[in-house]
Automatic annotation (TrEMBL), chain A:
The lineage of its organism: Eukaryota, Viridiplantae, Chlorophyta, core chlorophytes, Chlorophyceae. One of its GO terms (molecular function) is tRNA methyltransferase activator activity. It holds the Pfam family Trm112p. InterPro entries: Trm112, Trm112-like. This is Uncharacterized protein. Gene3D superfamilies: 2.20.25.10. PANTHER family: MULTIFUNCTIONAL METHYLTRANSFERASE SUBUNIT TRM112-LIKE PROTEIN, UPF0315 PROTEIN-RELATED. GO terms for biological process: maturation of LSU-rRNA; maturation of SSU-rRNA; positive regulation of rRNA processing. Belongs to the TRM112 family. GO terms for cellular component: cytoplasm; nucleus; tRNA (m2G10) methyltransferase complex. Interacts with TRM9.
From TrEMBL, chain B:
One of its GO terms (biological process) is rRNA methylation. This is Methyltransferase small domain-containing protein. Pfam families: PrmA (PF06325). Residues 220-324 are annotated as: Disordered. One of its GO terms (molecular function) is nucleic acid binding. Residues 291-304 have a biased composition (Basic and acidic residues). It comes from the Eukaryota. Gene3D superfamilies: Vaccinia Virus protein VP39. PROSITE patterns: N6_MTASE (PS00092).
Length: 123, 324
């Protein structure tokens, strides 16, 4: 699972009010090359929740070089784009868990696949 | 990529190891998959440089196709861990080496519940081959509601031709679609993968649909995003608006549409709750009656759908020549 996907997942089990963003418990991280496409990065940037992304990047060990706050203007900077691209699309959580920030409910990630299925009493 | 090449690629993708009746896990079939993918790519160019969600992805045939056609991020969602295991193997196989991966993330989740459980999940383009709802009534519509909640722009989906009118009505009235169009009618040559299939294969007439998500949906996304502290300001062009007037025979609906857009956010919530209400339910047992009806559609399908609309003509000239 990449951080782009992490950026769009949240915990909405019954009675949870603030289930975003997921904390990440890391067991294993891997890296795969992805095509570098500045146009796509510009396309996706406005949808990214930056604090959630940074928090995820911190957990996966690819936070370095990413600014505390991001602005549209940074998209002109090739160096920034490269680091953004890498953390967003090339670093994978292979094994670990997504942890709900409110309840601590863990959603296990196995072979890169997060299990977001809810139990009967959670929905 | 040519339709023929796509078709060949799709043929190499492994099907379900053991198809599950209750989940209606019919393999999408290289023919249907390649046609859907080809249309999205060739006629509308809605893969390249975009994010895609494949709902009920099964063994990831459509996800892999979308990634090969230039999608930059694909999320494949399925409720069945066994199917996702095969999907992961398929992805790895197509990707080849360890270094380069396909940009696909698989997520184990109940598609029907997505509007409630994963309101932040979104994609430019949603593609899916949902269950037809023969085993579990209404599941096809629950998938469609989920697709509308995830999609920012368009939804491509396959549905039985016999449900055409109902789909059109639901999409516009309940889901706030800006447009709903049957692009082609295809024949689903369903091999007898299920235990209850008496015949070697069953032909079902299937519509390839393209829906444009309405403005209300996009608004809803913004609200959902805002509620969770995401950035509020987003530059979203409402390309949908221009297309609205194109459809024929919609005049009487034109007035209602404004109101629809306003009401549609509520409509979606209702649809979402319906879908969610279903999620905890155990899939219902096979209804023999539904089955008989489906077989009936298969046998006489060609005949009873011929007179429905003028889409047949389009089907013929849309890339069919590439096939042979």
């Amino acid at each position: 699972m990449k951080l782009l996907t992490h950026n769009m997942l949240s915990c909405h089990i019954k009675n949870v009010r603030n289930g975003y963003p997921f904390l990440i418990e890391v067991v294993k991280v891997s890296e795969h090359e992805a095509d570098f496409d500045p146009d796509f990065l510009k396309h996706i940037f406005p949808r990214i929740n930056w604090p959630a992304f940074l928090q995820g990047a911190q957990s996966l060990g690819c936070r370095e070089g990413l600014p505390e706050e991001a602005a549209e203007s940074m998209l002109e900077d090739e160096g920034f784009l490269k680091r953004f691209h890498h953390a967003l699309l090339e670093v994978f959580l292979e094994e670990g868990s997504l942890v709900c920030p409110e309840t601590g409910r863990k959603f296990p990630v196995t072979k890169g696949i997060p299990n977001m299925l809810l139990n009967e009493d959670e929905c | 990529m040519k339709l023929k090449e796509l078709h060949a690629l799709m043929q190499d993708i492994a099907p379900f190891r053991r198809a599950k009746t209750e989940l209606e896990q019919y393999p999408t079939g290289p023919h249907l998959a390649s046609r859907l993918l080809f249309t999205v790519d060739n006629s509308y160019d809605e893969f390249a440089g975009r994010t895609v969600a494949d709902l009920g992805c099964g063994t990831a045939m459509l996800s892999i196709g979308a990634a090969l056609l230039g999608a930059r991020h694909v999320v494949g969602v399925d409720i069945d861990p066994d199917a996702l295991e095969v999907a992961a193997e398929n992805i790895q196989e197509v990707a080849g080496g360890e270094e380069e991966g396909l940009p696909i993330d698989l997520v184990l989740a109940d598609v029907r519940a997505l509007p409630l459980t994963q309101p932040l999940l979104q994609a430019d383009t949603v593609i899916m081959n949902p269950p037809f709802g023969t085993k579990q009534k209404g599941v096809d519509m629950a998938f469609l509601a989920a697709a509308f909640s995830v999609s920012l722009h368009t939804v491509y989906s396959l549905h039985k031709s016999s449900t055409r009118d109902f789909i059109a009505k639901t999409a516009k009235r309940d889901l706030g679609a800006a447009s709903a169009e049957v692009l082609a009618q295809l024949r689903y040559d369903l091999p007898a993968t299920m235990k209850f299939h008496k015949h070697k294969s069953v032909d079902i007439e299937v519509d390839l649909w393209r829906f444009e998500v309405g403005a209300a949906q996009q608004h809803q996304h913004q609200q959902a995003a805002g509620a969770c502290g995401r950035r509020q300001e987003r530059e979203e062009e409402d390309e949908d608006q221009e297309e609205e007037e194109e459809d024929d025979g919609e005049e009487e609906e034109a007035g209602g549409r404004r109101r629809q857009h306003v009401a549609a956010a509520g409509g979606l919530t209702a649809a979402a709750s319906r879908a969610a209400a279903m999620t905890c339910a155990v899939p219902t047992a096979a209804s023999l009656e539904a089955l008989a009806r489906r077989d009936g559609t298969g046998r006489g399908g060609r005949g009873d759908s011929e007179d429905e609309e003028e889409e047949e003509g389009e089907e013929e000239d849309e890339g069919e020549e590439d096939e042979d």
